[in-house]
Amino acid sequence: MRPAGFVFVGLLLLTVVPVTAAEKNLQEQVEQLGAKHEDRIREARQLAGEGRVREAKQVFLDLAKQQPSPAMSFWAGNELFRMDFERSYELHAEAYAALPDEPFANLEFAMQRHRRGEFAEAIPLYERFLKDRERSQMHALLADCLIRMNRIPEAIQHWKQADFRRSHVGIEKTIHEVYGDLHPFAKRTKLLEKLRGGDKQAAEPLLRQLIFMDFDWWNGRADKAAIQQDLVLIEATLGKESERFRAMACLADVTIASSRDDDDDVKNSKKDDSKVASKVAAILKDAKFILDDGAFPTNSIMAAGLVQVALKHKLIEKEQCRARFGDELWRRAQSEAGDQEALHLLCSLSIGKSQEEQKKLEEFDRYGWDRYHDVRFASSLLVLLAGQERLKTDGEELVRALKEFPDSSLVHQIRLEFTETEAITAEMLVEAIKAEFRHLSIGLIMIDGRRLNSYFAVLEQRQTKQGTGTK
Asked: Which element (helix H / strand E) includes 31?
């Protein structure tokens, strides 16, 4: 959960600067609220970690109702920033309405409006904050809003003021603050509520969420305690002897067996790969899934999870999986009900260098794109065509992908890489920049903002040559 005053307190610690009486007053009030309600905060965070986010949110909402003040709205809005987008927005709006000249009230409401897509409204709020407080990350966020309003020269200038080379980590994390998804605790709670409400189809997505709790674009892990806790509800819902529950219990067991504790050191993190692989193999064989003549789970989310863990530990070869399960996956994908997960798994098993493998992958990608309109099939096809030197910048596939998936950083990356340097326009770069802000792309090692920074550099060059338009 976002700590109280996440941006507010964090930014104050970056640089020692004089503060106005109003700022000091707000700062002191927020700190006092955190100290005064320490027990309630601890209670709320424990509830959230148990998948009871609705109750956790109510702790802060009750406090805001019982002790109304601008500082309380500001504090509660920070706490709920990634737990409840709508309520957090309302709380920060209340704080701003009461303190329209307070820089940090402007900043938090700017980020709220930015996240909601209210770019024109966010711009003056960021400007008001930056008038009194120099923060590189906020120049980056202002650049995003400006470029979406076609104020290109100003966007370039603010991106330069962000000083990416020195401040890239803070910039990247702050971009995630605006464009990141709901906190995984909140997503878990939504799935639990669906399951408790009788929606049995929420069971497998719930386990998938627990296996990878995506705290941000860079960090995720399996929540072993939550897996064990929620399996009790899943068992009661599906039945202990049901094939679906047995597959889920098997995936839960192999996940716990192959994951490491956060405090394991580097040496222990490697444990003894052969022992871990042996343990995973024993679990799969005992449950009679995947290995040897083991069954293939009827749910494709579980099938993908078990196949991937078997491949990871080298318990089965990709070619074996394709031979044994390929026809069934293709049947599921083409069924009247449809099954995207089956097709995703089939595509991953079909990646290879041979002409036959690439021919089949192209067939699957085209089918998946046409039927499911999923960017993953489209981007896979574009990468495949590019590798075969069959991709054209004005070709049907790329033109269609740009129209259907304007927020895909990978689609824009492919277009720019296959466009002659002199033919790259400012408009192309602007659209690529917008997509990068939506979700930073993978760099050499991990997700980072280097490509975004390079796009701004090239855009500045284009603007110098072409003037201030986006031709």
From this structure: helix 21-36
Domain borders along the chain are 6-134, 184-316
Tokens standing for residue 414 = 């492919």
Long-range CB contacts for residues 160-168, cutoff 8 Å, separation at least 24: 160/456, 160/460, 161/136, 162/136, 162/137, 163/136, 164/140, 164/449, 164/453, 166/136, 167/136, 167/137, 168/448, 168/449, 168/450, 168/453
Cβ partners under 8 Å of residue 19, min gap 6 = 12, 27
Exposed, middle or buried: residue 356 (CB in 10 Å: 0-12, 13-18, 19+)?
exposed
The letter for the amino acid at 224 is K
Predicted TM-score (pTM) of the model is: 0.90
6-134, CATH topology level: 1.25.40
- The DSSP H or E segment spanning 220 is strand 220-221
77 within 8 A of 88, measured Cβ to Cβ = yes
- The two tokens of residue 279 are 């343990």
Note the pLDDT of residue 327.
97
pLDDT digits (tens, 9 = 90+) for 71-108: 999 999 999 999 999 999 999 999 999 999 999 999 99
Predicted confidence (pLDDT) per residue in 181-206, tens digit = 999 999 999 999 999 999 999 999 99
